[in-house]
Structure prediction request, 223 residues.
Amino acid sequence: RKEVEQDPGPFNVPEGATVAFNCTYSNSASQSFFWYRQDCRKEPKLLMSVYSSGNEDGRFTAQLNRASQYISLLIRDSKLSDSATYLCVVGRNTDKLIFGTGTRLQVFP
Amino acid sequence: DAMVIQNPRYQVTQFGKPVTLSCSQTLNHNVMYWYQQKSSQAPKLLFHYYDKDFNNEADTPDNFQSRRPNTSFCFLDIRSPGLGDAAMYLCATSRGDREADTQYFGPGTRLTVL
Prediction:
């Protein structure tokens, strides 16, 4: 079993739709959680950190459920420019981060 | 204001011909990482440096080596590239003042092996 699991998608949604991604992690000692965005043939870029209290950045909302060991990302009012792969990333008590394989989102007009 | 710079962006080499990829950072971060990413896969950590301390991943082949001559620069040497080493190579940095910290990636070097 992979340490970080995501539905690879693709999620195909129309502009303006709301879309949600989930991610599960297996190690209960995990302590840092992130969503990264990766465009085709580009590097991953930090989208947002995820906190236990949940956090929101504009149209993006991230939630963490430690009891169930899952992380979610909600995107409201999807834009064409949101089309990308979203990587769920988890860290433990080391310098290393564990990356999921990503969920691909395609927003169409 | 490039913060993590990788050179070259595209590298073509021949089977078995050594190649060196370069990464530099202007963030003054303590930790530098090298990842290998193949199509539709997660970035795979090869090794990282905390300052001058080298940390190799258990499953990184001996064919891959790294050097960090100073805080700003880190190199990835592939001694004898095989066809299976064709991938995107990503360099990343983090402050290192707390565990599991945010990592910042360079634009990557796409390696082709002929």
The mean pLDDT of chain A is 93. The interface with chain B takes residues 4, 8, 30-32, 34, 41-46, 49, 87, 91-97, 99-102 of chain A (CB under 8 Å). The longest strand of chain A covers residues 84-91.
